[in-house]
């Protein structure tokens, strides 16, 4: 469902790929636990905001931010599903659901083959809130007209590293 996949050969290439993906955005939010090196080559015109549990950005302010950059906990090759579990590099659910564009970094080592493997990884932290992503937010009305961005980002960009 219209997910755009990008690749970076290694973590050193990630900031350049992120900058290319975010080139048209005016504002970006990222969780406070994100590796600062991932933000190294962002366009100078991009307003960058950090969100944390201690200093959360208000939802109305998030609505004015176009994009979010996060990590993930695990990704499933069989279904194309990416799962966040609220760790510090993934941030609060609000920052991944309000901006129109979600850029999610998936390390090749985080990709498992099938869903049961992902569930085993998620079981290590059973009380964390999870967000399962299988494409941009979408729904259909009673006439089966597809509407995107109803309950989450309209655009999903995945950067696979490694």
Describe the structure.
This protein has helices at residues 14-21, 59-62, 93-97, 115-122; strands spanning 4-8, 27-31, 47-51, 67-70, 74-76, 81-84, 101-107, 111-112, 131-133, 138-140, 146-148, 155-161. The protein has 162 residues and is of the alpha/beta class. A six-stranded parallel β-sheet has the order 1-12-7-4-2-3. It has a four-stranded mixed β-sheet with strand order 8-5-6-9, with helices on one face. A two-stranded antiparallel ribbon has the order 10-11. Strand 5 and strand 6 form a beta hairpin. The longest helix has 8 residues, at 14-21. It is globular and about 40 Å long.
Short description:
This protein has 162 residues and is an alpha/beta fold. Helices cover 15% and strands 31% of the residues. The longest helix has 8 residues, at 14-21.
What is the makeup of the main sheet? 6 strands, parallel
Q: Averaged pLDDT, please?
A: 91
What is the number of beta strands? 12
| Helicity, as a percent range | 10-25%
How many DSSP helices?
Answer: 4
Radius of gyration: 15 Å
Strand order of the largest sheet: 1-12-7-4-2-3
What is the 3D shape? globular
Q: Uncertain spans, ≥5 residues at pLDDT below 50?
A: none
**Helix-and-strand structural type:** alpha/beta
Strand % is 25-35%
End-to-end Cα distance, whole Å, is 24 Å
Order of helices and strands: EHEEHEEEHEEHEEEE
Topology:
Elements: E1 4-8, H1 14-21, E2 27-31, E3 47-51, H2 59-62, E4 67-70, E5 74-76, E6 81-84, H3 93-97, E7 101-107, E8 111-112, H4 115-122, E9 131-133, E10 138-140, E11 146-148, E12 155-161
Parallel strand pairs: 1-12, 2-3, 2-4, 4-7, 5-8, 7-12
Antiparallel strand pairs: 5-6, 6-9, 10-11
């Amino acid at each position: 469902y219209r997910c755009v996949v990008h690749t970076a050969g290694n973590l050193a290439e990630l900031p350049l790929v992120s900058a290319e993906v975010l080139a048209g955005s005016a504002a970006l939010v990222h969780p406070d636990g994100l590796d600062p090196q991932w933000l190294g080559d962002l366009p100078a015109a991009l307003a960058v905001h950090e969100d944390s549990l201690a200093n959360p950005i208000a939802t109305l302010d998030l609505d004015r931010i176009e994009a979010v950059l996060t990590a993930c906990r695990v990704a499933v090759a069989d279904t194309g599903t990416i799962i966040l579990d609220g760790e510090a590099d993934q941030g609060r659910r609000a920052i991944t659901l309000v901006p129109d564009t979600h850029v999610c970094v998936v390390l090749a080592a985080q990709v498992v083959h099938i869903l049961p493997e992902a569930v085993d990884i998620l079981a290590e932290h059973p009380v964390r809130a999870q967000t399962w992503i299988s494409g941009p937010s979408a729904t259909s009305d009673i006439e089966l007209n597809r509407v995107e961005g109803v309950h989450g980002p309209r655009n999903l960009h995945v950067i696979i590293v490694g």
